[in-house]
């Protein structure tokens, strides 16, 4: 949700969350 910047670098984790 608030990990928009992180999501960009770690798109992989975005799928897990």
TrEMBL record:
<protein>
    <submittedName>
        <fullName>Uncharacterized protein</fullName>
    </submittedName>
</protein>
